[in-house]
Structures are given as C-alpha cells and as structure tokens.
Amino acid sequence: MQDAGQRESSKARVEPHLIKMFMCGDVMTGRGIDQVLPYPNDPVLYEPYIKDARQYVDIAEGMSGPIPRRVDFSYIWGDAGGELDRAAPDLRLINLETSVTESDDYWKGKGINYRMHPKNAPCLRAAKIDFCSLANNHVLDWGYSGLTETLKTLRRMNVRSAGAGLNLEEAESPAVLEAGEKGRVVVFAFASETSGVPRNWAASENGPGVNLLKDFSDKTVHHIGEKVKGVKQRGDIIVASIHWGGNWGYAIPKEQKEFAHALIDKAGVDVIHGHSSHHARGIEVYRGKPVLHGCGDFLNDYEGIGGNEDFRDDLGLMYLLSMEPTTGELIELCLIPTQIKRFRINRASQTDSVWLRDRLDRECKKLGTRLELGNHNEFSLKWN
Predict the structure, then answer these.
(1) Where are the domains of the chain?
(2) Which residues pair with 346 in a beta bridge?
(3) 208, 269, 329, 359: which is deepest, by most CB within 10 A?
C-alpha cells in the first residue's frame, strides 16, 4: 500500500493542472558577484574591514580556486539553470537581496551595502526569474535613488516585484503572476525588523521604502487579510514572501510560527515563503499549506569567509512546490540540494546532500514533517 507521500508524488506527476513554483532564499548578486559579471560597479565599499568588493573575489579564489571575470549572465546559476529547465516550473520566485543601481548614495552607518550594476540585471532573465521580493534588509543599501533605479530596472526587464515601492500603496501591492491557463499566483512581500531591516526604511503614504511589518499581531494579520480579499479571485494561490528572523540558528520563534499559522487561518494565505536565514530551516505543512520558515542563501559571495561553518551556508536548496489551485493545498514539495562554489550554483555532492538532509530532517521532524532522500540526491517532503 502506498503511503500518503507516495500518493501525493504520483498525483503531482499525472495531474498537469497543478501549479508548479520554484522558490529559493536569498539571491545576493551584489558586491563580489557583481564584480565578476560583465558590467561591475565601482568596487568601493564602506564596510568596517573590507573597502573594495574585489577582495571578496580574492577571498573566494583563495578557498576554491580561480573565478573567471566578465562571465556570461548564466554563469552564476551554474547547474541550477539546467535543473530548472528540466523541472519546468510555471513560475520562478526569488528574494533579490541587493540594490540594482549605480547610485553612490550609500546608506550611512549601515555597515554592509550591496549593489549590482543595472547592466548586470539580465542575469535574472538568464534564469527566467518571474518575481523578485524586494522586502529585505539590502534593497535600500544605496539610498532612495538606488531603490528607484532598482524598481525601474526590474520593470524594464518585465520581472515582477513586490515589497518595496515609491510609497506605501506601491510597497504593499502584490505581484499578480499568470500561470498560463492554470490560474494566478498572487505574491505579497513583507519585511520584519527581526531580519535587520531598519525601522526608518518603512514606506510611508508619500515616501519610498519597504513593506515593513509593524508586528506579528492580530491587527497586522487582519490588515493583510483585507489586502488579500481586495485582489483574490477564485483559484488564486496566495503567497506571503517574508524576510524575517536572524541569520543563524534553527530555532523558530514562537511568534513567527503563530504569525504564519494566522496568515493561513485568517488572511487567506496559501504559501509562506520565508527567508533571511543564511541556511535552510525546518519546513512545516499547516492545514495543507506549506510554511518555508527559512529557505537559506541560494547565492552569495561569502565563500572563504570564516565563522558559523557548522551551519554550512554554502549549501542551499531549490524548492519545487506543486500546488492544487482549487484548494491552495500543497501536493508535492521536491528539494534539490546545491552548493555555492566559485560564485556559481552547483549540484551538491552526495556526501553534502546526505549531511544537509540529515540536518534538515532533524528540524522538520519537530514540525511534523520529514525528508526522504531520492536516487538523485534530491529530497521529497513527507507529511501527515
């Protein structure tokens, strides 16, 4: 007799009406990554210890060997590009954790400032990215002029975004993504101060900024629910993409978990797409809806930087969700383990895949789910 997970997996393969989405955590194409792309920004940085973005390239090369310069736009995606083409998701969603700008108006006193040159933005199209969440703690690293240029650049490339805007209405507005004849995916994006977003980055009625959550209260849930009601149509999948929590550690704060449940119970949200943690955190399925508490880094320039090695932030995951549009329920979740090496995304080795599965399975079991390792080192999520 097949178990529930096997039935779900089988159903996902034979029912083509399911909406399939690719999600991942932080995609940090600024700083060192920007320096190896075809049109690098001025490398000047205002960090306490490193003043030139090219030093991040040097550090990575010291760890892994030579990294080519002026790479083509597809280079950074590495093996992920082929995996995405094979999986053929209807939509591809990321958290873009950088400003896309030539602005020199860095945010004073922040300490870390990420930017990617607008001419390097075609790297997003190289991976056929449909949506970028901008509600995070790096989108305003180069000031309001940097945010404005980021928004203009994405619009010019027809890459949808949410979570930041020139005023509060724009920052709160969702992106409505068409999944062909299957239906729509509506994505709201939020940032929390718990992820390091400065309070003064919040968009106002007449001022630019991010869609900052005031708190995790019932009042906030009600406000989001009203926004969902204003746009949701029958058959829509509603996604809440949330930048929350600290960078390190597997513990999920009680108020964060309760907020995720309340968004599903009271605000009509179907998918919680959480990010900010530099490594993957446990996955929950609550009332048939997926809660990705922390998707981890998918691409960064941390290669060779010491500290927190036990968490293996070089290892990431490709999240492939198959959703039933009539109910908004999760049918299948497949995860493909990856590793950042030489500033590109590679399939993780079998040894690293097993390590990641074991570590993440330990956390998933605390949330009522488990991970099963497949023949090609991919994981499948099982739940009751």
Answers:
(1) 4-383
(2) 339
(3) 269
Helix 218-231 / helix 254-266 crossing angle, nearest 10 deg: 40
DSSP 8-state assignment for residue 29:
-
Structure tokens at 103: 């602005």
Q: List for the chain the helix, strand, coil content (%; round to 5).
A: 30, 30, 40
316-334 burial, b at 16+ Cβ within 10 Å, e below that, comes to bbbbbbbbbbeebbbbbbb
Please give the angle made by the CA atoms of 148, 195 and 261, to the nearest 5 degrees: 110
**pTM to 2 decimals?**
0.95
Three-class SS string for 195-238? HCCCHHHECCCCCCEECECCCCCHHHHHHHHHHHHHHCCCCCEE
Angstrom distance (rounded) from CA 115 to CA 208: 18
Class of the domain covering 4-383:
alpha beta
3-state secondary structure of 27: strand
Whole-angstrom Cα Rg for the chain: 19
pLDDT tens string, the chain, 384 residues long: the values are: 344 444 344 444 547 899 999 999 999 999 999 999 999 999 999 999 999 999 999 999 999 999 999 999 999 999 999 999 999 999 999 999 999 999 999 999 999 999 999 999 999 999 999 999 999 999 999 999 999 999 999 999 999 999 999 999 999 999 999 999 999 999 999 999 999 999 999 999 999 999 999 999 999 999 999 999 999 999 999 999 999 999 999 999 999 999 999 999 999 999 999 999 999 999 999 999 999 999 999 999 999 998 888 999 999 999 999 999 999 999 999 999 999 999 999 999 999 999 999 999 999 999 999 999 999 999 999 998
Q: How far apart are CA 164 and CA 289, in angstroms?
A: 26
Amino acid at 229: K
CB-CB contact of 283 with 292 (8 Å): yes
Element at 153 (helix H, strand E): helix 143-156
Q: CA–CA separation, 148 vs 151, rounded Å?
A: 5
Conformation bin of residue 328: beta by default, left when phi > 0, alpha when psi is -120 to 50 = left
Contact predicate 250/356, CB 8 Å: no
